[in-house]
C-alpha cells in the first residue's frame, strides 16, 4: 500500500477514535493538498493580475514551463509550499507538546495537584486509556514525520534540487522537527513506564512501532523502531559529565543534560533551577543561546531510568 493510502486510512481511523481521545482536533500534514501543489508546479502556473494561477494549456508552453520549474528556482512553490509546511509543522509541535505535557502531569504530579487532576479525570480516564492515548500520540508523530519527509523528497524530485532537505534543516534549527522534540522522548518513556520490560511493541496501529531501551550499553540509547521506514535513536548520555543523565532536563534545542550539569552550564545554582539561567547562556553542545528558559524537566525519562 502506498503511503498516501496509509495516511488516508490513518486519518479515517483517527476520526473513529475522536470521541475517546479527540486527536482529530490536532493539526496534521495536509499530504493530499501538498501533493496537489506539486502537481500544479509540474505544469508551472502563471500568475495573473488578480493573484490567481492558471495552468498553461498549450503543450509546447507546458513543456517549456515544466523545464523551467524543474531546473530553476520556483518562487511560486517556495512561497506557497514551504509557507504551508511551516505553519503545519508549528501547529503540530504545539498540539503534540501540550497533549504529552497533560499526560505527564496526570502520571507524575504529586500531592494535592495529583489528587485534583485524578479527581477531574477519574470518570473518563483509566490507566489503560492513558496508555492507549500515549501510543496514539506516538502514531501521530510517526505519521506526520513520515508524511513531512516524503513530501519534501517529492518536492526535490519535482524541482531536481535539494531545497526540500534544506528546508527540513531549517525546521530542525527552529525546533519544529517533531521527531527531534524532547516531548517525544518523554512520551516514549511514559509508555514504557507502564510496561514491565525494556521493550514496547505495538502492532495494532497503521504503522507498527517498537520502543527499546538498553541501560547496560556503555552509552544507553532510547530507540523508536519503525519497520520499513526509519529508526530514531536518542542518546541518554549527558554531554557534560559523560554519564547517563540523572534528573534529566532537555534544553529547548533538544539536548539532554543532568540537572546539575545543566545548572553548571547555565551558571546558576541547583536550587535556582535550570530555567533561571540568563538568556545569554549557550547550550554546551550546539552553542545556541536562549535555550535555558524553556527547558523541560524529563520526569517520565527520570522515572524510567530509576526503575531500570
At a glance:
The chain is of the alpha+beta class and 308 residues long. It has eleven helices and nine strands.
Explain what this protein looks like in three dimensions.
With 308 residues, the protein is α+β, with helices and mostly antiparallel strands. It has two domains: 3-194; 237-307, 2-Layer Sandwich (Herpes Virus-1), CATH 3.30.40. The chain is built from eleven helices and nine strands. A four-stranded antiparallel β-sheet has the order 3-4-5-6, with helices on one face. A three-stranded antiparallel β-sheet has the order 8-7-9. The chain has a two-stranded antiparallel ribbon with strand order 1-2. β3 (199-202) and β4 form a beta hairpin.
Secondary-structure blueprint of this entry?
Blueprint: H1 3-16, H2 18-21, H3 31-43, E1 46-47, E2 53-54, H4 59-71, H5 75-108, H6 111-121, H7 127-159, H8 163-173, H9 182-193, E3 199-202, E4 209-213, E5 221-226, E6 230-235, E7 248-250, E8 256-258, H10 259-265, E9 296-297, H11 299-307
Antiparallel strand pairs: 1-2, 3-4, 4-5, 5-6, 7-8, 7-9
Helix pairs in contact: 3-5, 3-7, 5-7, 5-9, 7-8, 7-9, 9-11
Structural class: alpha+beta
- Rg, alpha carbons: 22 Å
Please trace the helix and strand order, writing H or E for each element.
HHHEEHHHHHHEEEEEEHEH
Mean pLDDT: 77
Q: Describe the oligomeric state of these chains in a short phrase.
A: single chain
Indicate how many domains the architecture comprises.
2
Distance between the termini: 39 Å
Unreliable segments (pLDDT under 50, ≥5 consecutive)?
Answer: 45-72
Largest sheet: 4 strands, antiparallel
Helix content: 40-55%
What's the count of strands? 9
Domain SPX: 1-169
Keywords: Metal-binding, Transferase, Ubl conjugation pathway, Zinc, Zinc-finger
Protein name: RING-type E3 ubiquitin transferase
Pathway: Protein modification; protein ubiquitination
Amino acid at each position: 500500500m502506498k503511503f498516501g493510502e496509509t495516511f488516508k486510512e490513518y486519518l479515517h481511523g483517527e476520526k473513529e477514535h475522536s470521541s475517546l481521545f479527540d486527536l482529530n482536533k490536532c493539526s496534521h500534514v495536509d499530504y493530499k493538498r501538498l501533493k496537489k501543489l506539486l502537481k500544479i508546479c509540474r505544469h508551472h502556473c502563471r500568475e495573473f493580475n488578480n493573484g490567481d494561477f492558471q495552468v498553461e494549456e498549450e503543450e509546447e508552453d507546458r513543456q517549456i514551463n515544466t523545464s523551467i520549474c524543474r531546473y530553476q528556482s520556483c518562487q511560486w512553490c517556495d512561497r506557497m509550499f514551504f509557507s504551508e509546511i511551516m505553519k503545519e509543522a508549528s501547529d503540530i509541535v504545539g498540539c503534540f507538546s501540550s497533549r504529552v505535557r497533560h499526560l505527564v502531569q496526570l502520571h507524575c504530579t504529586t500531592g494535592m495537584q495529583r489528587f485534583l487532576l485524578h479527581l477531574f479525570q477519574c470518570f473518563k480516564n483509566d490507566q489503560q486509556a492513558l496508555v492507549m492515548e500515549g501510543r496514539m500520540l506516538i502514531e501521530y508523530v510517526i505519521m506526520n514525520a513520515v508524511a513531512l519527509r516524503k513530501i519534501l523528497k517529492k518536492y526535490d524530485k519535482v524541482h531536481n534540487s535539494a531545497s526540500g532537505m534544506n528546508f527540513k534543516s531549517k525546521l530542525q534549527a527552529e525546533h519544529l522537527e517533531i521527531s527531534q522534540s524532547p516531548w517525544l522522548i518523554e512520551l516514549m518513556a511514559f509508555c514504557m513506564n507502564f510496561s514491565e520490560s525494556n521493550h514496547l511493541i505495538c502492532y495494532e496501529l497503521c504503522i507498527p512501532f517498537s520502543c527499546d531501551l538498553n541501560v547496560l550499553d556503555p552509552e544507553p540509547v532510547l530507540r523508536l523502531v519503525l519497520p520499513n521506514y526509519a529508526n530514531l535513536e536518542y542518546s541518554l548520555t549527558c554531554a557534560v559529565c559523560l554519564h547517563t543523565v540523572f534528573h534529566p532536563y532537555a534544553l529547548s534545542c533538544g539536548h539532554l543534560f543532568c540537572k546539575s550539569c545543566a545548572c553548571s552550564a547555565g551558571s546558576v545554582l541547583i536550587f535556582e533551577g535550570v530555567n533561571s539561567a540568563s538568556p545569554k547562556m549557550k547550550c554546551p553542545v550546539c552553542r545556541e543561546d536562549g535555550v535555558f528558559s524553556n527547558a523541560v524537566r524529563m520526569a517520565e525519562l527520570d522515572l524510567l531510568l530509576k526503575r531500570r
